[in-house]
Every structure is written in C-alpha cells, then in structure tokens.
Design goal:
Layout: H1 4-11, H2 17-30, E1 35-42, E2 45-53, H3 57-65, H4 73-80, E3 85-88, H5 100-108, E4 116-123, E5 129-137, H6 147-163, H7 168-175, H8 187-197, H9 202-209, H10 213-227, H11 232-241
Antiparallel strand pairs: 1-2, 1-5, 3-4, 4-5
Length: 247
C-alpha cells in the first residue's frame, strides 16, 4: 500500500508540469493502470478546455472522428456529480445504450486495452467548470470499488488533483479575460484546435490532417492571432468558451 505522505513526497520539489506528469504516470503503472487523463470541463461544452492524456493517440483520434463524445457518459456525470464513476468496457448491451456511439465507445475501448476506466470529478477553481481525473486499466476493477482498491485509488486521484492542474486553470482564467467580438475561424483552424483539445501533438495532428507540420503550426499561429492569444492553449480556451469548436 502507498501512504498519503509517500505519494505527496513523490511530487515534492518538482517544478515543471512535465516532471509532475511523468511522476504521475509512474504511479499509474505502480497502481496497475495503463493510462491517465486529466481535464477541465466547462458545463456548457463537452470539449475540454484543458486536457492531457497518456491514452493511445489512435484511440483519441478515433474518439474525435467517430463522434464518440455523444455516447460518452463522462461529461454528463462530471456536470451533475462528484462521485466516482466506473466504466467497464465490453459490458453495454444494445438495448441499454442510449445511442449507437455509446455502444461503440463501450466496446471499442477494450480493443485499446482499456478494460476499466475510473472517472473522478473534482471542484475546479473556475466557476462553472469541473476537474476530471481518469484512471484506465486493462484489469477489471471491483464493481463497487470496495476495500483497499477503493481507498488507494481515491488517494491517488486526490493527489493528482492537487498537483496536475497547477498552472492550467490560471492560464484558462487569463484566456477568459479576452474582450472583443467573436472572431471567425477557418475549418482548418478549428480542426487543429480540436485535435489539440484531445491531447494530440503537432506531429500527430499533421498526420491526421495529411498536412506538413509547418502548415499545422501556421494554422495555430493564425488562430492565435485571431483570438488574441499568446499561446495555443489560450487560443483553445477562448475557442471553447465562445463555442467556436465542437464535436
């Protein structure tokens, strides 16, 4: 078992977001997980305004291209509850699915090795937003998350909430201060921002859109200029806030 002090000590003294993220992934592996995702979700838009994930990029791209968000229970659950949610892959029946995307999502996640997904919502420092920590595993979680497994995963996600959102929400708060008319983004500018929202790097975005990396960077630059943003992340935050990108 991991004690709380031990987990917090692992992050003590880490200055950069990348160092904290790498430490979190080490802990995920130690706890039997195979991926970690963290997000800040605005209640009015399922597209996260902040997102970081170690999930397979092919899976994230499939999630976008197949419009699986409309079948994903995570955004709705995070809006209405702070209780953990366990999603077990390959268990949803056709008669139980609210739409075809829900059925496809539940069964296709197992193909990528995500047999079980634990979703833990937390309060955000931003009004109207929710932090979400998503722990995935190729193992089946106990149905009710009882006993030691529940206690340890609850502790782990609490530590992730404490460290992995540091700096992210302040950047979103800065982006929310932008004033002026809502700009018009081109289809390509919206596409590159959407892929950024789902955690894809510039190289992967270029591959998905069959563009050169330098071209993708130019689209990011033009989107930033239109949105009055200093960074791609701030551009993404305003685009989501103003409803300029959606699935």
């Amino acid at each position: 078992m991991h004690a709380a002090a031990e987990l917090f000590d692992r992050f003590s003294g880490l200055k950069s977001a990348d160092a904290r993220w790498d430490t979190a992934l080490e802990l995920v592996a130690e706890f039997g997980g195979n991926s970690l995702s963290v997000a800040v979700i605005n209640g009015t838009n399922p597209v996260p305004s902040f997102f970081r994930s170690s999930m397979d990029e092919r899976w994230l791209a499939q999630y976008i291209e197949r419009n699986l968000v409309v079948g994903d229970p995570l955004p709705q659950h995070a809006q209405r509850s702070r209780r953990p949610l366990v999603i077990r892959g390959g268990t949803l029946r056709a008669g139980e699915a609210r739409n075809p995307q829900a059925l496809e999502l539940n069964h296709s996640m197992t193909d990528m090795g995500y047999q079980s997904v634990l979703v833990v919502p937390f309060d955000s420092d931003l009004t109207g937003n929710t932090r979400v920590v998503v722990f995935s595993s190729d193992l089946e979680f106990d149905k009710n998350l009882n006993g030691e497994v529940s206690d340890q995963l609850a502790l782990l996600t609490m530590v992730f909430n404490a460290y992995l959102f540091e700096g992210a929400e302040s950047g979103l708060r800065d982006a929310a201060r932008f004033d002026g008319a809502v700009p018009v983004l081109s289809n390509r500018e919206r596409e590159v921002l959407l892929y950024l929202a789902l955690g894809l790097k510039t190289q992967r975005i270029a591959e998905r859109l069959q563009l050169a990396e330098v071209t993708v960077r130019k689209y990011f630059q033009s989107a930033r200029q239109k949105l009055g943003a200093r960074t791609r992340e701030q551009a993404l935050a305003r685009a989501i806030r103003d409803g300029l990108i959606s699935f």
